[in-house]
């Protein structure tokens, strides 16, 4: 899932967001998004994995 309106612009401003998003996708997260206009990244998972 991706916020098509604000995420492409905010991702450029958040250092490491693209790399974090890719790493989170690898552990099968359901959602990884930037919350609103604040620099908050949240992730929802259906299992707990440790690395």
Overview of the molecule:
By secondary structure, this protein is of the alpha+beta class. The protein has one domain (7-44). Helices cover 33% and strands 20% of the residues. Strands 1-2 form a two-stranded antiparallel sheet. β1 and β2 (40-44) form a beta hairpin. The radius of gyration is 11 Å and the shape is elongated. It starts with 6 loop residues before the first helix and ends in a 7-residue tail after the last strand. The mean pLDDT is 76.
Which features characterize this protein?
single chain; 51 residues; alpha+beta; two-stranded antiparallel ribbon; 2 helices; 2 strands; 20% strand; elongated
Question: What is the strand and helix layout of this fold?
Answer:
Layout: H1 7-13, H2 17-26, E1 31-35, E2 40-44
How many domain modules?
1
Helix tally equals 2
Helical residues, percent? 25-40%
Strand order of the largest sheet: 1-2
Put the structure in a nutshell.
With 51 residues, the chain is an alpha+beta fold. It is built from two helices and two strands; from the N terminus they run H-H-E-E. It is 33% helix and 20% strand.
């Amino acid at each position: 899932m991706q916020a098509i309106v604000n995420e492409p612009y905010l991702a450029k401003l958040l250092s490491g967001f693209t790399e974090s998003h890719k790493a989170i996708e690898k552990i099968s997260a359901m959602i990884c998004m930037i919350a609103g206009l604040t620099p908050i990244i949240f992730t929802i998972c259906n299992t707990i994995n440790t690395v």
